Amino acid sequence: MKIVPRSSHEQGIALLGVIILALVLALVGAALLDLAGQEASSASGAAEAAVAQAVADAAQDVVVAWFHRPSTSPPAVAALLAKRQSLSDGSPSFFDLAGRSQFTGTADHPDVLLNASRSIDQQLLNDAGIGMFRSLEDLGSVQELKVYAPGAPGLLCTVDATVTTANSSTRHRVSMQLGAVDIPALRAGIQVGGSLGLPQIAPESGALVHWGDLTVGGDLTVQRMEDLPLQSDSAPVTGASYRDMSHREDRWSSMWIGGPIYFMQLSPGQSSSVVLPLNVHANRHPAPGVRRDRWGYEQLKQLAKQHGAYLAIDRDGLLYSSGSVEPGHGVAPDDYLRSRSVGDARGLIFIDTLDQKAPRADNLGVVRLSAAYLEAVLVVQGHIMMGPVGSGQSLSVLSPPARGSAETGSRTAVQLSNIHLNGALYAAGNITLDRSIRAFGAVVADGTIATAYPGVTMELWYDHEMGRGLFRGVPVVVRAPGTWMVRYE
After folding, report:
1. Which residues have a Cβ under 8 Å from the Cβ of 10 and sit 6 or more positions away?
2. What is the mean predicted confidence (pLDDT) over 219-242?
3. How does pLDDT run across 308-323, given as a tens digit for each residue?
4. Is there a cis peptide before residue 70, judged by omega within 30 degrees of 0?
5. Each residue of 455-487: pLDDT tens digit?
6. Beta-carbon neighbour count of residue 294 at 10 Å?
7. What is the C-alpha separation between 454 and 204, in angstroms, rounded?
8. Nearest to 55 by CA among 158, 155, 137
9. Where are the beta strands (DSSP E) in 138-199?
10. Quick check: 145 and 113 in contact, CB under 8 A?
11. Longest dimension (CA), the chain
12. Distances in Å between the alpha carbon of 118 and those of 114, 125, 126, 155, 453?
């Protein structure tokens, strides 16, 4: 068979096809390489943004922590973050009577400003030895922190954090707004609405307060004149019980009594018309009256539903975390409320009335507590019976500042032993004690505090922070939903 050679025209077409194919493949390869580069750049940018946001979030978290523990903030900042307004009853608040926030600054002229361009702020923010964000050194640094007015009514403030990452000088700004969880302050150690003390022969009175005030709406009955602690600036600041003192004295204790004070025994030489110590104020009704801190039913109920735990109760005293009574699902109060160790704070817990309506004489349940240790802000819209079984826990706490000094004045570290209650306890009814109890915090009973047996007492060391509206385990501020924003500068 004879082979006919291809024409030069056919060979040229084949060569052209090969060249076009090679060119297409080259373009596809270049496009793939460019896409891979873009993806690598995008991934690097995303990682950079994630690091920047993490650093900015850490800066904002520090500001939130300042509100909860002002002692951790720079001294100049602490005064600005404290509650500087007053409600109609005189208790401290972040808002004025019209509901306006105490923060009034703008982004250009904020209430609080820390700027790393100033050497003192740079040291405070990023110094490798003492800076607040020294642990973030490998990730980036905080260039600016601002706190100023909120962008919406009812909110507390805006927090801006501007940061750079370790691998870039690009500035990232993250902004959020904070809302306040405003629980009314408790400005006395123990407060009762009715009379306190029973005309019985007992070695001492039933309610003893260190480091703060005792307020009684009605009459006060005590065993002897010596049961009333004297206020003295030279009194030792310790965790010693009054029963172990040769004479009772305290640096911060005052007593405010609506009616008269009755003494079951008079010391030799005393007459029935005794002169009361200067820190004991009796017969204040009807004028000027006794100041009591009131926790509104609806306000605390809503706060617990949003930022704590809301519980229903039945007539047997069982609790229901679902918020409604479901037969067969109730738990004993101790099983739900008991704290296992110091730091196991249960937060804000609200136990409602039997019919979940405002408290009346006929809808109050009874909560029975025998746990050895409870760390919480417990609000009971009913009666409480307490008889702790166990020795409680030891606490390391701070005394109030010296009388007449600023809120941030020097405070003494004190070790308290055998503490059964660490926090606040509120009862819409009465509190009845089966056994003696030692507490750190504050206690309020709209009724009274009664003792089931002679010699049983509630001895409390007042937590000064509660007078500023600060309660362990309960947030002071929270991030307002939908207000988090990031900007690149």
Report:
1. none
2. 93
3. 999 999 999 999 999 9
4. no
5. 899 999 999 999 989 999 999 999 999 898 877
6. 14
7. 8
8. 137
9. 140-148, 157-165, 172-180, 190-192
10. yes
11. 151
12. 8, 10, 12, 30, 65
Burial pattern 411-434, b for ≥16 Cβ within 10 A else e, equals beebebebbbbbbbbbbbbbbbbb
As a dihedral over the C-alpha atoms of residue 239, residue 241, residue 247, residue 251, rounded to 10 degrees, the angle is: 40
What is the torsional sign of CA 164, 170, 171, 173?
negative
pLDDT digits (tens, 9 = 90+) for 7-18: 555 666 666 666
Helix (H, G, I), strand (E, B) or coil at 415: strand
Q: What is the distance between the alpha carbons of residues 252 and 403, in angstroms, rounded to a whole number?
A: 7
How does strand 413-419 pair with strand 393-398? Answer: antiparallel
Give CA angle at 487 (481, 488), nearest 5°.
Answer: 160
**What's the pTM value of the predicted model, to 2 decimals?**
0.85
Its sign, for the CA torsion 400, 402, 408, 412, is negative
User: Residue 460 CB: number of other CB atoms within 10 A?
Assistant: 25
DSSP SS3 for 38 = helix
For residue 3, the 8-state DSSP code is P
| 261-263 vs 309-313, strand pairing mode | unpaired
Q: Give pLDDT tens digits for 333-378.
A: 999 999 999 999 999 999 999 999 999 999 999 999 999 999 999 9
φ, ψ dihedrals at 176, nearest 5°: -150, 165
Categorize the per-residue pLDDT at 79 as very low, low, confident or very high, splitting at 50, 70 and 90: confident
Q: Please state, in angstroms and rounded to a whole number, the distance separating the CA atoms of residues 452 and 108.
A: 62
